[in-house]
Design brief:
The complex is a heterodimer of chains A (about 110) and B (about 150). Chain A has about 110 residues and is mainly beta. Chain A has no helices and 7 strands. Classes of the chains: A mainly beta (about 110), B alpha+beta (about 150). At the A-B interface, β4 and β5 of A face β6 and β7 of B.
Amino acid sequence: MPKRKSLIKIKPRKYRVGDIVKVDFIVIHPMETGMRKDKKTGKVKPMHYINEVKFYFNDELFTTVIPWETVSTNPYFSINMKVTGPGVLKVVYKDNLGEVHEKSKKVKPKG
Amino acid sequence: MRRRAFLKGIGAIGAVALLDIKVLAKDTKPKGKNAITFKKALEVITNGKGAKTSDKVKLIVPEIAENGAVVPVKVNVEEPIENVKSIHILATKNSNARCADVFLTPRNGRAYFATRIKLGQSQDVVAVAVLKDGSAIMASRPVKVTIGGCG
């Protein structure tokens, strides 16, 4: 399983309990459509795309995103989340070749 | 200054396209494993009921996308979050019309989703929001693509 870089950003950076924050999630992933040809070999590159992204807060699933191969290379997903207290935001994503990765970030509301 | 004139021309075409928004574009022949036409995708999402065009769905896309491989799409649904079950982003002329499906829960606070999609050619981008009672509302906007992003 190749290592993939991913990133979770919470905007704005300072937030309080009760605020609705923006959660941005970015992965470095090729997102092949299965229609592109390799310029060197002339063969069609096989389909390779993320087909499930799940957002958890304190192990409670709150959002599921089902992307298709029509999502751009290095996909970016942005959703909103209501802050109810401190905890851990975890994102688990899978692709069609069976790769499973996860990334987490601490949620620390101030005040 | 040829480039400038060219870009101006495209802008003019985009303005014309904006005037007559056609939601249902003609289906093109689908190819590829996940291929699905826009009509079928909409049927699957709304359970065959179809979707009504509504002002409550705010879809933000660029009028002209220079690069079809990266087209930012933002959707805001002005309904209480408890009412919104899911948001779907569709592209009318892509071989796989579905771009992303998002299933929301009250923890989201607001029905909002943003991502970046690929567009093979100039077409309409459609956002569908499925509400709790099973009905669906949607919004569509045309996007002009100068370089396709799916080929």
